Amino acid sequence: MSIKHGIKTLAVVGASGQMGNGIAYVAATKAQIPRILICDQSDAQLDKGLAFFDKLLAKDVSKGKLTQDDADRARASLTKAPGGAASLAEIHQDGPPDMVIEAATENLNIKQSIFKTLASTLPLSTILATNTSSISVSKIAASAVPENAKAGSPEAWQSPARTLGLHFFNPVPVMKLVELIPALQTSKDVTDRARAFAEACGKTITVSADTPGFVSNRLLIPFINEAVMALESGVATKEDIDTTLKLGMNHPMGPLQLADFIGLDTCYYIGEVLLRETGDSKYRPSVLLGRMVDAGWLGKKSGKGFYDYN
Ligand code: CAA
Predict the structure, then answer these.
(1) How confident is the model at residue 2 (pLDDT cuts 50, 70, 90)?
(2) Ligand 1 atom nearest to 133, measured from its CA
(3) Interface pTM, i.e. ipTM
(4) Which of 105-109, 177-181, 207-211 has the lowest mean pLDDT?
């Protein structure tokens, strides 16, 4: 028997960033979730995100991928979360969402604070998902405990069980994968419903244990790092490294171009997580990658990385 996700209201935290915006987009257009609350740090950021959302809808309508009616319905499903900007504690005001997907900055303290607030205000029936690409999902789940729950109480045990990792890939509307990462605490029912939701978003699901970098970044980040080290040691030019992988292995982007696309700070950060949490020196981020981050050369988002984007 196929499991139903049962999500009628979805909230996306960090909805104006590339990932959050893309998640809201596939939830609205593919899964056709009737009500999607978008939440971010400022109204101005949310408006910027909505403008990008509108641009994507218009592009998909013009290419015949969506009917105008479906685009209008998708757009109408989006609402700013009640209370305006940064209003996590008020997200439940007009009825609690069935699921929240957090796609905020990749920072443990920020995520822990978000999950504590969500767990303190939303009923146990709300699934809490994180789009983290490298932080321990079990650690995030452990913070999803209501503020006033006593240690060892049923609430303190039950709340982390509705938390899991749903790792989307950039650009979300294009990339076909979602990596599903149950925390140690996650219940089977929550895992099954989250899988059904991600499938409704048009994605193929792979499951990874909650280990550093999961499957995707455990393989991708050392690959990118090796390409940077090849450049650093003069094996080939950046263009030849990228062209070798693009034309020799049919990758859509070479590793250095992909590093620019992901963000060099993100690549460096995930490399550090892999190194710290495994203790294995094979994950040590290259010196050149670190220096480029020091210089503020973060790739596409800063206008300069291995390539120039101005
Ligand atoms: N949002 C939505 N759609 C986008 C987009 C965005 N930000 N960027 C591009 N697209 C769409 C375009 O609109 C276009 O759609 P249509 O086919 O409907 O026209 C389609 O993608 C192709 O775009 P382009 O023709 O402009 O460019 P392209 O053919 O060179 O493809 C690409 C661009 C899809 C990004 C492709 O280069 C690619 O697949 N690159 C690899 C991306 C990748 O590996 N992503 C994963 C990164 S790792 C990660 O996200 C997770 C992590 O934890 C680090």
Answers:
(1) confident
(2) 53
(3) 0.97
(4) 105-109
Strand arrangement of the beta sheet that strand 35-39 belongs to: 78-80, 35-39, 9-13, 99-102, 127-130, 163-168, 177-182, 204-207
**Which domains does the chain carry?**
9-207 (3.40.50.720), 216-301 (1.10.1040.10)
Give the tens place of pLDDT for each residue, 140-173.
999 999 998 888 888 888 999 999 999 999 999 9
Q: Which residues pair with 204 in a beta bridge?
A: 177
Residue that has been written with the tokens 């090849």 in this structure: 230
Pocket test for ligand 1, best of 174, 179, 245 (most atoms within 8 A of CB): 174
For 66, phi and psi rounded to 5 degrees? -140, 145
Residue 167 annotated among the catalytic residues of the structure: yes
